[in-house]
């Protein structure tokens, strides 16, 4: 047994064995935070000038009061974990039809580079960008959109290798193959709106 351990340590130190540690799944409905609390909190960080506040809001059937994140401004609220292949779920509700919420994924450590899906105002479609600093490149877009208006809808990003799939309420709107992909990073959101039920589930390798 000792001999096996010694061989394993030598293999690790020499680089013969490469072990990648998968970050834990993320599941946050924001119920554990205090009303009025502003990010950063828990695993969440903030980049930029936006504010992210725990706010009470009624469910769509007006029967349950939930704690959600109310976002204002142009900042990004994000979790810095190196997810590789994963499914990212998030519930989003606009404040006004003109609002344009944003979904970020595969972000680098300070959220200055990664991918972003923009929910266009007035349900005019979705746009997929790759960005690095101030340089934003449009990768794909659709002019079709779910009739979300100012109701909560569930958005889903599937990032698997160089393939990105974007769904709303289980319907696929964008499928894109990136020939020069960002292969890992954190997740986040921003733009005007309410955000809830953030979940990240790593895909099996």
Automatic annotation (TrEMBL):
Gene3D superfamilies, A to Z: Exo-inulinase, domain 1 (2.60.120.560)
GO molecular function: hydrolase activity
PROSITE patterns in alphabetical order: PROKAR_LIPOPROTEIN
Highest taxon of source: Archaea
Database matches in InterPro entries: AL/BT2_dom
Boundaries of every 3-keto-alpha-glucoside-1,2-lyase/3-keto-2-hydroxy-glucal hydratase domain copy: 44-200
Record protein name field: 3-keto-alpha-glucoside-1,2-lyase/3-keto-2-hydroxy-glucal hydratase domain-containing protein
